[in-house]
Amino acid sequence: MTQATSAFRFSEYGDASVLNMESLELVTPAAGEIQIEQDAIGVNFIDIYHRKGVFAAQLPLPAGLGMEGVGTITALGEDVSGLAIGDRVAYVGGPPNAYSQHRNLPAARALKVPSDLSSEMVAALIFKGLTVEYLTHRCCNLGEGDVVLWHAAAGGVGTIASQWLASKGVSVIGTVSSAIKADMAKANGCTHVINYKEEDFEERVKEITNGKGVDVVYDSVGADTFTKSMNCLRPRGTLVSFGEASGLVDALPVSMLGAKGSLYITRPSIAHYTADRGEYEQAAENLFAAIRSGAVKSPEITTYPLVDAARAHTDMEERRTTGSIILQP
C-alpha cells in the first residue's frame, strides 16, 4: 500500500504566505538513502533565503524546504552501511525537505545521535552548532586572547558562538537590538555588548579596542553592517560574511581591502565545510563534546507545530524570537 506524508512546498518565491502543506507520496528510499520519521525540525535563516530565492543558485520550483532535523530511521535503501532501522539520526544538508513528517535522505548526511542528547536539543543545535564549529575552528581558528565582533549575538548562532568562544578564552564583542537581548548576550559570554539601536557599533568597537580593531568580524546581517564591519578590523583582520539578513552586500572593489589594512574577506558555506564525510563526523563530535562539557548549553527553544511553519518564518524575520526555533510534526 502506498504511504503518504505531509510536507511543506512552495511554487513561487516570496514571503511566508507562499508556503503550503501538501500530501505527498512516501516513496521507497533509493540506493544510498534512508527514510526517517521526523521527531524535530530546525528552522534557520537559510530556509528564509531559499523561500525568497535570494541565492544565485535558486532552488528549482516547486521545492521543499528545510535543511536540518532529527528522526528515527524507518527504512534503508540498498548499499547503506553503518546505519540500522530504529537508529536516531540528525542531519544537516541534503535535498531541502526537512519541513515534513517523513522524508528520504542521503545516508551520507545522517549522524547518529548520542543517547544522552534529546531530539529537541539536537534539532535546535546541530545546524547552528556545526555552523559555529566551522566558523570558529576551521574558517578562522580562534583561541586565547583573540578578540572578535559578532553581530546578532543573541540569535541562535550568536548565542552558541558566544558560549563556545568564551570557553576558549576569546573576547567577544556582541551587537544586539534591545536591552533584553543585551542581557542575554552578556549571560552567554560576551565580554562587551553593543545595542546598535542606541550606539554606533563602529565607534564603540574602536573605543573598546583602544583603536586597534578586532581580529575577526562575523557578519550575518549583510547590507546594513558590512562596510562598518570592515572598519572595525585591525590591519590584516578577517571579515567573515555568512548571511544577508538585511539584504545583499554591494559589489566590493578588491583595492579597498588594501586601503583598509590588507584585510581578508571570506563568504563561507556550511556545504563546503561538511562535504567530506570524515570532516562532517568530526565536526559533530566536536559539537557533542562541547555540549557535554557545558561549553555549549541547551538554547532557549521556541517550538511551533509543523503546520505553523509560516508563522515561525514571520516571527523570525520580524526578530520576535531569540535562541533556536524548532518545528514538531
TrEMBL record:
Sequence ranges assigned to domain Enoyl reductase (ER) in this UniProt record: 14-327
Gene3D superfamilies documented for this protein: Medium-chain alcohol dehydrogenases, catalytic domain, NAD(P)-binding Rossmann-like Domain
One GO location term (cellular component): cytosol
GO MF, one example: mRNA 3'-UTR AU-rich region binding
Pfam families: ADH_N (PF08240), ADH_zinc_N (PF00107)
SMART domains documented for this protein: PKS_ER (SM00829)
Keyword set, alphabetical order: NADP, Oxidoreductase
Name under which the protein is recorded: NADPH2:quinone reductase
Species of the source: Cohaesibacter gelatinilyticus
